Amino acid sequence: MTSDPHRHDLGEFLKARRAELDPAAVGLPDGGQRRVAGLRREEVAVLAAISTDYYARLEQGRIQPSPSVLESLARVLRLDDDQRAYLCELSDRSEYRPTAARRRPRPKTQVQWQHMIDDMAHTPALVIGPRTEVVAWNAMGAALITDFGLIPEKQRYYIRLLITDPAMKELYADWEGVTRLAIAQMRMHNANNPGDVQLAALVGELSVRDDHFRQWWAAHDVAVRDTGTKHLRHPVVGDLHLDWNAVIWAADPDLQIVVWTAEASTPTHDSLRMLASWAADPSHLRSGSSA
């Protein structure tokens, strides 16, 4: 059996997606009690017009699917746009990719990032990497979430903070939804580097520490980190309903600048101004420079 990590992840992703499908939803009879949830391998194969053996080898990570098979599987498994993109990323020329575990360096902050986000006096902002490593932040980002400067660099992962810091469960009104989305985004944004040893160490640590993380990571959900809304219950300024946007840093496409904003003349917009005044007091919060 191949050791290609892309093919292994592809097989696990296919298994997770077929386990979610209701047979009746794809026009199949229930067929009585099933040993496993969702569709059987042979049912997916029939619907995709491929042999059961071929599909089984795909799930076992033994073969590389053709573009036409990928399209059929995406249709049968009812994949959304993000899931289709992830499927294609895992399947794109994996036979030419190195199979040895790789160490993608942790991104380092650059003065241009820091100057830009520091100029956002009323806008919380972070620079975040594919593993959710927080590599830069401004004073408002620290005031909104936490003082990242107090967290050792090797532990400064947003997903780790969500899982291990009880204050995050209080901060996010929908902590579970936020955390599951962050996990799905982390998987999506690491699709092209499944052999990353730092990601494996992070996933291993959190899987041991938290049953929820282990379950949600095993679900193989994926999502692009792009834009959305979040409801925060901030200990200083109260309820905040924020829009967030993640923009790719052109000089390093692995990095994204995430900013939180609110529409003018709304209570949240006013609360951000109050938070900025609070954060300006050095007794409340250290400078937002990163390590």
From TrEMBL:
<protein>
    <submittedName>
        <fullName>Helix-turn-helix transcriptional regulator</fullName>
    </submittedName>
</protein>
<dbReference type="InterPro" id="IPR001387">
    <property type="entry name" value="Cro/C1-type_HTH"/>
</dbReference>
<dbReference type="Pfam" id="PF13560">
    <property type="entry name" value="HTH_31"/>
</dbReference>
<dbReference type="InterPro" id="IPR010982">
    <property type="entry name" value="Lambda_DNA-bd_dom_sf"/>
</dbReference>
<dbReference type="InterPro" id="IPR041413">
    <property type="entry name" value="MLTR_LBD"/>
</dbReference>
<dbReference type="Pfam" id="PF17765">
    <property type="entry name" value="MLTR_LBD"/>
</dbReference>
<feature type="domain" description="HTH cro/C1-type">
    <location>
        <begin position="34"/>
        <end position="84"/>
    </location>
</feature>
